[in-house]
Amino acid sequence: MKSHLIALSIGPVQDFIAAARRTRDLWFGSHMLSEIAKAAALAVHNAGGELIFPHPGSREKLSPETDFTVANIILAETNDPQTVRENAEKAARESWLSFAHEAREKAGDMVREEVWKEQLGDVVEFYSAWTPVSPERYKAARERVMRLLAARKNCRNFSPFTGKAGLPKSSLDGLRETVLKENARSRGPLRIKPGESLCAVGVTKRVSGEGRFPSVSRVASDPWLRGLLTHQKGRESLEKMKQHCEKLVQSGALSRISIKNGLFNEFPYEGTPLYIDRHNSVEKEAPAGSGVSEILQEIRKELESLFPSFGVPSPYFSVLCADGDRMGKAISRATSPDEHRNLSSALSAFASNARVIVEKNRGVCVYTGGDDVLAFLPCDTALSCARALHDDFGKNLEGVSKSVKEGDKPTLSVGISVGHALEDLADLLDWGREAERRAKADGKPAERDGLSVIVRSRGGADQFVRERWGRLEGDGVLLPLDQRLLFWAEAYSRKALPSKFGYEVRSTATFYKHWTDGLSCARALKMDLDRIFARKDVSLSEDERKIAEKSISAGITDAEDLERLADELIIGQWFSESIRQAKGGKPRASDDNAA
């Protein structure tokens, strides 16, 4: 065993991840921080350090070409902590500079060179701590080195101010002055909006690296686009719109997106042109004299010819935030570096699988690292993705928690927030994190391992449901929440339930709010629910009715229980529109969640 345990922290998280206006800023900031941490981890390995977190298994996984994700905290054993620390910091700063230099070339003459150079050296935050370690004292040494690292981070470095007077601050985070010249507006890959300012970090996130991350409007419109592919007319119109969108790309008014595995290849562009009410914004950002108005008019004609058969593409999509439960306990239980490496390997395997799971569900990962996942998904696949992530996390962590009692095993809580693509990105992320917090039962340990769903419609009241994850284990057992929501959504999508069904159940719940006789209330509720489900416009099959009866009869004894059922039904209806569109179905006569 090496003589010292060293911990490294790399940042800033705020600059790289939290500050973002476009999805591209958010995704690439996360990617860049992981790559910088990966470079530091490789330097630790090359300097003779034995990595614990992360534990890649082979040196090759730490090369820049791999999808291996590294968190911003690194833990390793070493005999020479000073050398390891120096090499890791140098590698981290060089990695950042490689991204920045690439961005500088792409930004061209839009950048103030003097301000750019001044900001480059003041970006990467690097902190370290180390302590002696012995085989029998590993647990105590790990706890000590993490305390030392936290203390070191609290003793922040304050460099002399080097900003320029008279220049506006970055509109993303307000920390540094803009590096852009006054005439840098809607030119080239930066796509600067009027009034927007970017510092060196913002410019690097916007243009460094290859490809474009899908916009939230592209994610939201994905079910509708898939629905077009189910019909000849839809396929023909889609090909025509792609030709028009290619002209928009050539004019500089639209970005083409690219994902390594070919996801979204059927329409590899931002989704903005698919929403007629967003055409004005495309025109405003387009260069003068580019002929964008005429191109958009052609796209509008195609869209209007499709609406009677396929409806209007839904502008709503899902933000999925997942986080492991009891991970602190899992880490603290380890008494040797090998135990920690096993845990690290399990988390790395989950992070790798998570990206595949999200993409299989037509989503895009902003970040997958360790036990954290942040992803954007179409509404029709979000619930299935959440279930797959939860089950895969349990499978990967099973080996490291076999000897742990049931209540202390690591689990995954998942929050899903459904929001409108035109909402501010920061708000959409906050809502996703709120859904995750609620899934974790607001920090109550015994109630974690949950799924929560929040729907925030424009101009309507929020809808919320939350429940601990459950399994379908045989007759007589209530369907788990994700399965119930999908069941209601499928029924709505086939018009087996009327569009106002959930609201009628809520109205019934209001009627029973002040009943004090519990037994009479439960009986009356059951009779009313039977009446509602017996309506002529409810066309469930016999098997479906049995499932519905099981779902509504289990635990519904008062008005509060009935309100929860109403929330489920209403939220299920929100998912139903995307399910219907993905199948190429015709729009409902009454569309409660249309844009």
Written overview of the protein:
The chain is of the alpha+beta class. The chain folds into four domains: 4-207, Alpha-Beta Plaits, CATH 3.30.70; 216-310, no CATH class; 319-377 and 398-469, Alpha-Beta Plaits (2-Layer Sandwich); 471-595, no CATH class. 48% of the residues lie in helices and 12% in strands. The protein contains 19 helices and ten strands. It has a six-stranded mixed sheet. Strands 2-3-1-4 form a four-stranded antiparallel sheet, with helices on both faces. A hairpin with a 7-residue loop joins strand 9 (450-455) and strand 10. The longest helix is centred in the N-terminal third of the chain and has 27 residues, at 81-107. The protein is globular and about 75 Å long. The model is unreliable at 590-595 (pLDDT under 50).
Instruction: Please give the CATH architecture of the largest domain.
Output: 2-Layer Sandwich
Count every helix, treating DSSP H or I runs of 4 or more residues as helices.
19
Q: In CATH's first tier, which class of the largest domain applies?
A: Alpha Beta
Number of strands: 10
Under CATH, the homologous superfamily of the largest domain reads CRISPR-Cas system, Cmr2 subunit, D1 domain, cysteine cluster
How is this fold's topology laid out?
Blueprint: E1 4-11, H1 13-18, H2 23-46, E2 50-53, E3 73-78, H3 81-107, H4 113-120, E4 125-132, H5 138-154, H6 200-207, H7 216-228, H8 232-251, H9 279-285, H10 292-310, E5 316-325, H11 327-333, H12 337-360, E6 364-369, E7 372-377, H13 382-397, E8 411-420, H14 425-439, E9 450-455, E10 463-468, H15 481-493, H16 501-511, H17 518-533, H18 542-553, H19 559-582
Parallel strand pairs: 8-9
Antiparallel strand pairs: 1-3, 1-4, 2-3, 5-7, 5-8, 6-7, 9-10
Helix pairs in contact: 2-3, 3-6, 7-19, 8-10, 12-13, 13-15, 15-19, 16-17, 16-19, 17-18
